[in-house]
Structures are given as structure tokens and as C-alpha cells.
Amino acid sequence: MIQFYYAYQPIIDFFLLSVGFGYSQQIALRAGVFSIATAGFAALGSYCVAILATKTGVPIFLTVILGTALAAAVGGLLALPLARLRGAFQAIATLAFVQIILSLLLYGEGFTGGALGIVGIPREVNTWILLIVVGLTMYVMWNIGRSGMGRVFNALRQEESVASSLGVNIGKYHIIAFIISGAVGGLFGGLQSLYTFQIEPHNYGFAFIVNVLTVVILGGRTTLLGPIMGALIMAILPEIARPLAEYRQAVNGVILILVITFLPNGVGDEIVFWFRRRKQARQQQQRASEKEARDAVS
Amino acid sequence: MLSQQILNGLVSGSVYALFSLGFTLIFGVQKLLNFAHGATFMAGAFIAYYCTISGLPFLLAIGFSMLATGLIAILIDLIAFRTLRNRGNAEFPALVSSIGVDLILVSIAQQVSKTQVLNFPFGTFPIKFYDLFGLRISLLQIVILAVVAVLVAALIFYLRKTTFGRQVRAVATNERAAALLGVNAQSVYLQTFFIAGALAGLAGVLIGLLFNSIQFLMGEPYMLRAFVVVVIGGLGSVQGAIVASLLLGVTQSLAVAYLPSGLTDAIIFGLLFLVLLVRPNGLFGDINAVAGGTRQ
């Protein structure tokens, strides 16, 4: 077990970070928001942590909390102008948001280090911390999913007008979804900067957006298992497909097309749905046999 | 100096127009974002480059590359969009699958070019400069402006005056009604994709010539610019896209010349954000095509 851990530690850490970003992306999609702003949130979180940790004496723990809070606040603010937009327009607006963040990071050289980024961030995060934070995030997501909020998100995703006719305040729940997405994205962005000890703006560019989307699409957009399965595939795939290493992006592309075409719910969601269906079928069977037994007695 | 910047801006803006027209055409007809458009653009430059160095005359190389990118775009429609479109509610899935196509094309280009920056051989296009009312304008710039003007006029004529164009507009308005009236929607989709691909390919060649550099990631910044153009011009509006492209080109060259360089992107995308806030349908967009609630 320990040997396995040492051999594959970078992959495991990569997997855990991907899961975290995946949840940030998933919560937005789950509420029916086509946001691809997770890259921007992650950039905010990681830069906040990196700047505070390298330039001030703020305790590391506090920097992560501040980074999370900053990204959450920006997420909430971002939701306000986006309230009028839907679908493709939302996707474009969030893409613009990410671009604005990136160009500001490039521009503010004195503060953010420009294109070179920030180096020498204390390396305070290891696998165990990542594991604990991912666990906590999952716990929060699990509770959101089971609560009324999760049901509201599901309703908003499936049919917004119906949700609205049932008295759901759409704007409010979109803001909440953005705040959660921002907080989770900022949190894992901060952890990432404390893990890789150097960050630069282009870490959070188009490739980041695509990777996060891939995790959620492969895994699934509604269940807790989704981002885990997605991140697992993304972490293991390069190991399996070593001979195709040069064409890794192409392989990712093919997988994206195949999954979205033939398995639109994603691998993780399909697994969960399969178990749910089986459970329902079994319950039905049980009910039927009980009824049969009762009929036989009477 | 100012007018020189404006001229340069108009030239790059007209190439943006060429690129964004296809993008906005696809969105107007299908209501889907084609993220692989940037890769099609890049493929156009690549194909023209490899045709030129293998000895084909340059004009023939351009024609061949437009044909090839048109076919690539048709392939994109068949592979990435058709199944999803038939299933309905394809907005998000199509975005994802077109990103998949983008990854594939970019990866192939990376391998083909071995991650190097390619240049058209010297003398592919004659380098000549003219003085026009005190402005310095190169032959290439004149050709670009002329080509774009002709193509844009042709496209507008095609959409407004021909039967094919009327079919395209009918499908864009209501696919079901158009199909009931005997319009073959699938062929309209293929046509729009072919046109979009060919225009993107040409734009790729022109940009490759203008900056004399071709590399596998060249599509990405233009893709992002195209978003700005189509949002400001109104998604799906051809005239809007043209005006917005020229506006963007001029804004960009002025921002580069007179403002701190790093801020250009922030300004452009801030502009996009502002337009989305104030007029989500764009400056020339169809008021009936609601930016909110397009989902059914």
C-alpha cells in the first residue's frame, strides 16, 4: 500500500485536485448554469494564497480561507450580470470572465509577477491534506444534493420555467450556485498553489477549462460519483495509453466525443443510475411478490 | 499615426470578419457554439503551407485549403453535431464534442509541425508597399481588404437573394416548419458548415501571410476574438458580425498603440461583458432571439 502510494503519488495528487475542480464545475452545471468560470475562480484562489503566503506573514491556513472567500465573493458578484443570460451566452460570458482575470494577472506584474508568475510558494500541502479537503467537499456536496437546495438545482437544470412556476427564485439559486462553485474552485486553486509551489497565469487558460470540463463530462454532471470517475479516468488514461502519449490531447478529444454522444450522462452518473434502477426494480418485484402472497392468503 | 493605426485595425478587423462570419452563421442556423472553428482556421493555414512548400502555385494552394477546410467542417458536423442535434437539447453536449474535435485537430497539427512555428517561404506573396494619402499600405493589406469585401458581399447576396440562402434562413428561423415546407434541413446544415469552414480556412491563410507565422495554437486567440465579435454584433447576425469585427480590429490596434500593452485583452473582454450586460442580444442582434431563455 505504502509502496503503491510512493510510486503513484503525483498521479494521486493530480487526481485529488481534479476531483476538487470537478466539483466546482459540477455544481454550476447541476444548477443549469453553463458556467466555465472555474478556471477563473481557481486562478483567483491560487494567486490570493500565493501572494499572501510569499509577501505577508499571514498564516497559511488563513490564506487558504481568504482565497476561498475571495473566489466565492467574486462568484457571487459574477452571478449578478449573468442573471439575464442563458445557455451559450452564459458560456461566453464566463469565458470572458476567465480571460479578464488572466489578462489582469498578466498585467499586474508588480503584484502578480506577470507572465513569470509567482515562485517559492511554501509547499504546505500533501496528499493527506488534499484527501481530507476532498472528503470535506464531498460531504458538503452530499448534503447539498440531499437537501432542498439540491432538489431546486435539479429542477432548475431540468426545466427552469416549471421550477419558477413552483415558486423557486431562479436568480437567488443561480447566485448560490456561483458562490459555491467559486468557493470550491478558489479553495482547490489555493491548495494547488501550495502544492506546486509555483504558479503562472497560463496554468489557468483554455487547457484548464477543457480539463475541468472533461472531468465532469466523463464522470457525470449530477452525482457525487461523477467527478471522481471523471478524474480517475483522466488520471489513469495517460498511464494506460503510454504508446499514444504524443497524441494524448487527440485521445482526450476522441473520448470526449464518444462519451458525450453515446453516454451523455457520463460514466459515474450511469453507474449510479444503474444501481438506482436496479434498486427500484427489486423493490417493485418485492412489492409484487408481497401482494401475491397476501392475495394467496386471502 | 492615428490613421495608420486605424487602417491596420481595419485590415485585421476584416480578417476577424471572415473568421467570425462562419462562426455566427453556424450559431444562427443551429444555435450551437462550434468550438472547433479555431482549429478549422488553423487547419486552413497548415494545409496552404504544406501545399505551397510541396510546389503548388499559391493561388491553387489557397483554393485547395479552402476546399479542405470546408470538408473538415462538414466532417465536424457529421461526427460531432449530427447525433447530438437529432437527440435534441444539444447546446451543451455540442459545445463539449466540438471541444473534442478541437483537441484532435490541434494535436494532429502539433505532431505534423513538430511543435514548430512555420513560415511561408519567402516570396510566396510579393512584398510591396504603397503610399496612400500619407499612409503606408502593403499590397497584401489591399488584397485582404478587397478579398474580404468581395466574399462578404457574395455571402450576403447568397443569404438574401438565392434559394439556398432563403432555405438557410428558413431553417435558422424554424427548423421544423422549414422541414414541413420541404426544405432539406440536413443539407442546409452541411452547406452552412462548408461555407463556415472554407471562410475560416481562408482567414487562416490570410493571417498566416499577414503575420508570417503559422503554429498549431494559432486558432485559440481568434476563437476568443470570435466570441467577442459575435456577442457585440449579435449572435447569428451577419451584418452585426462585420461591423463588430471592424470595430474590434480598430479598438485592438488603438489599444495596443496607446494603452499599456497588457491591458488589451482585459479591455476587449470587458467590452464583451459590458455589451452582454446592457444589450445581451448584441448591438445588431435580433430582438426576438432572446439571450435569456433560449433553452426549452
TrEMBL record, chain B:
Q: Which GO terms describe its biological process?
A: amino acid transport
Per UniProt, subcellular location reads as:
Cell membrane
- InterPro entries registered for this protein in UniProt: ABC_transp_permease (IPR001851), BCAA_transport_permease (IPR052157)
One Pfam family here: BPD_transp_2
Annotated membrane topology is:
Multi-pass membrane protein
Q: Name one cellular component (GO) term.
A: plasma membrane
Instruction: Give the record's keywords alphabetically.
Output: Amino-acid transport, Cell membrane, Lipoprotein, Membrane, Transmembrane, Transmembrane helix, Transport
Q: Name one GO molecular function term.
A: transmembrane transporter activity
Predominant place of localization: membrane
Q: Please list every transmembrane segment annotated in the UniProt record, as residue ranges.
A: 6-27, 56-80, 92-113, 133-159, 188-211, 223-248, 255-278
Tell me its family: Belongs to the binding-protein-dependent transport system permease family. LivHM subfamily.
The cross-references to PANTHER family, in alphabetical order and at most eight, read:
AMINO ACID ABC TRANSPORTER PERMEASE PROTEIN, BRANCHED-CHAIN AMINO ACID TRANSPORT SYSTEM PERMEASE PROTEIN LIVH
- By what name is this protein known? Probable amino-acid transmembrane lipoprotein abc transporter
Q: Which organism is this entry from?
A: Maritimibacter alkaliphilus HTCC2654
Q: What is the lineage of its organism?
A: Bacteria, Pseudomonadati, Pseudomonadota, Alphaproteobacteria, Rhodobacterales
